[in-house]
């Protein structure tokens, strides 16, 4: 099958959108999507790590001995995760405090290691960059959607970035009662289940 | 054999490069991170304690070394005189780890002026109330810096938060340590305070 850069990029946005189609990286998907803002922040951090590790793994794919490849991937991924952690501390400290433990946990996010092993170690740098970017943006979109869904229903607000509420149902309609269950942990499973159901109803793999 | 050497070399080179990169980024972001922590973690606690100060205590600060630790002291002007300093201590033995406590000391009376919890990993609704409940922290005001601060159950004066005795003890411990540090550094603190007159 001929591979084109645009194909590798686009597939991550819908056809292989990580949490819904590949069903990978569910830990942060369930953990941080209580607000749309957190979903976007988490998604962007993951995208940065994903692109960085994909590029480096792809560049070094002929140098890394296959027996120690996983160790090498983990070193590369962990480096990028620590860089992201430091940058977030320096520039978006509040977001860093909220996402907390989920940022260092990107190291063991199956998507990142999965793309390094399944894609970047077998393909060129350009294709791997497109793949990382596509999957990363797809992941961000998925987390943002889930976050928006849960935030609107569960808190009656919508926060896109920097704590600014774009929508405040409670203030606009005083009768609106937030459905608190949705922002709690069990609600995350229910929402994810509903999203998966919706994804499976629209279009086949 | 050859393959093994290659594995060792690749891993070594990769790890060293990664270490170098991290050191570089850490160095580059150090000042900004310190600034952010000051603004967003320590700042609110300091401002709350020194609500009546006529200066900006976050801006007016100096540092001293206590043993091998570097401590930041925040100066507050009360009634026009630099009378109080605040600094952070860590109380060991909280329910979820160390409890960071900003302790302000009135230098003219050697008494605690006020305290505020900065960082903690205590349980929400129980230990976390140490940060949220002003009634709890208000009890520290006026306590001596010479005697150890204790909860009432241990023969002290502080009423522990109900359901969070362990957290309350950690906060008391942090306050006690602050008193000890203050007594140790008192001459240097007073000398530095004179510069702010």
Outline the fold blueprint.
The complex is a heterodimer of chains A (205) and B (197).
Chain A (H helix, E strand, L loop, with lengths): L4 H7 L6 H5 L3 H6 L4 H24 L9 H23 L1 H7 L10 H11 L4 H31 L1 E3 L5 E4 H4 L12 H17 L4
Antiparallel strand pairs in A: 1-2
Helix pairs in contact in A: 1-8, 4-5, 4-7, 4-8, 5-6, 5-7, 7-8
Chain B lengths: L1 H48 L11 E6 L2 E10 L2 E14 L2 E10 L4 E7 L11 H4 L1 H5 L26 H30 L3
Antiparallel strand pairs in B: 1-2, 2-3, 3-4, 4-5
**Major β-sheet strand ordering of chain A:** 1-2
Pick out the low-confidence regions of chain B.
none
**Assembly state here?**
heterodimer
How far is the first residue's CA from the last residue's CA of chain A? 17 Å
**Roughly how many Å is the radius of gyration of chain A?**
18 Å
Q: In one word, what is the shape of chain A?
A: globular
**H/I helix tally of chain B:** 4
Give a short account of the largest sheet of chain B.
Answer: 5 strands, antiparallel
Instruction: Determine the fraction of residues in helical runs of chain A and give it as a percent range.
Output: 55-70%
Distance between the termini of chain B: 72 Å
Task: Name the structural class of chain A.
Answer: mainly alpha
Q: H/E series of chain A, N to C? A: HHHHHHHHEEHH
Total number of beta strands of chain B: 5
Strand order of the largest sheet of chain B: 1-2-3-4-5
Radius of gyration of chain B: 21 Å
């Amino acid at each position: 099958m001929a591979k084109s850069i645009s194909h590798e990029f686009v597939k991550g946005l819908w056809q292989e959108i990580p949490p819904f189609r590949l069903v990978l990286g569910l830990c942060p998907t369930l953990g941080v999507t209580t607000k749309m803002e957190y979903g976007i922040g988490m998604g962007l951090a993951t995208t940065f790590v994903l692109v960085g590790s994909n590029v480096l793994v792809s560049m070094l794919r002929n140098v890394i001995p296959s027996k120690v490849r996983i160790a090498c991937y983990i070193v590369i991924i962990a480096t990028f995760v620590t860089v992201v952690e430091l940058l977030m501390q320096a520039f978006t400290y509040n977001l860093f405090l909220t996402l907390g433990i989920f940022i260092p946990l990107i190291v063991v996010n199956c998507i990142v290691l999965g793309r390094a092993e399944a894609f970047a170690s077998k393909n060129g740098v350009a294709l791997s960059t497109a793949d990382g970017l596509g999957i990363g943006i797809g992941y961000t979109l998925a987390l943002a959607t889930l976050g928006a869904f849960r935030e609107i229903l569960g808190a009656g607000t919508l926060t896109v970035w920097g704590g600014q509420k774009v929508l405040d149902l409670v203030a606009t309609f005083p009768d609106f009662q937030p459905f608190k269950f949705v922002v709690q942990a069990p609600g995350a499973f229910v929402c994810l289940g509903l999203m998966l159901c919706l994804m499976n109803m629209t279009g086949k793999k | 054999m050859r393959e093994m050497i290659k594995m060792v070399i690749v891993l070594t080179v990769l790890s060293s490069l990664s270490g170098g990169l991290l050191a570089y980024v850490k160095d580059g972001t150090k000042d900004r991170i310190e600034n952010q922590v000051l603004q967003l973690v320590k700042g609110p606690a300091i401002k709350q304690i020194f609500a009546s100060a006529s200066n900006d205590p976050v801006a007016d600060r100096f540092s001293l070394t206590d043993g091998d630790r570097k401590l930041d002291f925040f100066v507050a002007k009360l009634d026009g005189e630099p009378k109080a300093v605040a600094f952070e201590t860590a109380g060991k033995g909280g329910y979820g780890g160390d409890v960071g406590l900003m302790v302000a000391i009135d230098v003219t009376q050697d008494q605690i002026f006020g305290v505020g919890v900065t960082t903690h990993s205590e349980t929400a609704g129980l230990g976390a109330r140490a940060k949220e409940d002003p009634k709890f922290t208000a009890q520290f005001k006026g306590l001596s810096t010479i005697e150890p601060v204790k909860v009432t159950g241990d023969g002290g004066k502080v009423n522990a938060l109900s359901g969070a005795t362990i957290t309350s003890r950690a906060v008391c411990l942090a306050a006690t340590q602050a008193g000890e540090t203050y007594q140790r550094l008192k001459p240097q603190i007073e000398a530095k305070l004179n510069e702010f007159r």
